[in-house]
Amino acid sequence: MPFAGCPNRCLYCAQQAQTGQVREELDSALKRLETLLAARAGQGHAPVEIGFYGGTFTALPLEWIERFLLLAHQYRDLGVVSGVRCSTRPDAVSLPLLNRLLELGLGTVELGIQTFDNAVLAASLRGYSADIASEGCRTVLEAGMALGIQLLPGLPGHTAGMFLSDVQQACALRPAFMRFYPCVVFRGTGLARLYERGEYAPWSLETAANACADGLRIAWENDVRVIRMGIAHDTGLDAELLAGPVHPAFGSMVRGRALVPFVLDRIEALGKEPTLLMAPQSVRGEFWGYKGECKPLYAQAGLTSDKVQWWSESHFCLR
């Protein structure tokens, strides 16, 4: 739902590129959703969760919010829908509103916090403060909903150190999950104009990947899941993209790098060259890093591929 309900256009925003959709009237979006759900109802598929993304869902007229949620509720009763989530701004939630939406079946609210730094928020034209961002998170939790926090590292004036502070503050608010979306430059945005004038430079892929790896470890330490890192490659993305840290394997790259200090710290604590590492099967695809980029770092500590085995447990065992 690109831009739907948004009170203003943020400096970096290009939802038509990120969602692969142009702006759509609400009645058209409702009809399209009903068509999709009706088709699934007749095909015997497993239930799906509906997500209302791309705009500010809770800032839509209440009548329209209710129409979307009542439609979802109807198909939930038919076993087609398993749940409903939305994305919105932290200054567009209130306890009375969320209580009503909870009654209608909305279970998860993702807040586009972006950062807790007031100067960066102002420069990005977000229109709210860090205090309001935190209060919005607390309001979602008070309503009994699952909270998701979206962070946008690399905005104008934003540093890697600021991002790690953002992650720590986000974890302290106890979200169910987070997403990291490193800032990129899309055509037709205010950020594109700054970039073209030489007044803004996006983070390099290396900077973004390393910062997100550090942020991911903070999330792990606080038992907070990070369910997405990097923007998705949707239709039309490449044509609209001017610059920024975009990579099809960005999430895998970050997870591989995040694991390195985690494992090396344990090797150092072992006090000798390791003979065997039992590692969770779940990390097998990214343990050695993107295209094996982490292998030399492990080899320096005496950990080579012949010393690593995979098991079904969720923890590591080193000896």
Automatic annotation (TrEMBL):
Gene3D superfamilies: tm_1862 like domain (3.80.30.20)
Keyword Ribonucleoprotein on entry: no
Keywords tagged on the record: 4Fe-4S, Iron, Iron-sulfur, Metal-binding, S-adenosyl-L-methionine
Signal sequence region: none
Keyword Metal-binding carried by entry: yes
Cofactors that this protein relies on: [4Fe-4S] cluster
Domain Radical SAM core: 1-225
InterPro entries, per database record: ELP3, Elp3/MiaA/NifB-like_rSAM, Radical_SAM_C, rSAM, rSAM_horseshoe, rSAM_sf
Cellular component annotations (GO), alphabetically ordered: cytoplasm
One Pfam family named in its UniProt record: Radical_SAM
Protein name: Radical SAM protein
Source species: Desulfovibrio subterraneus
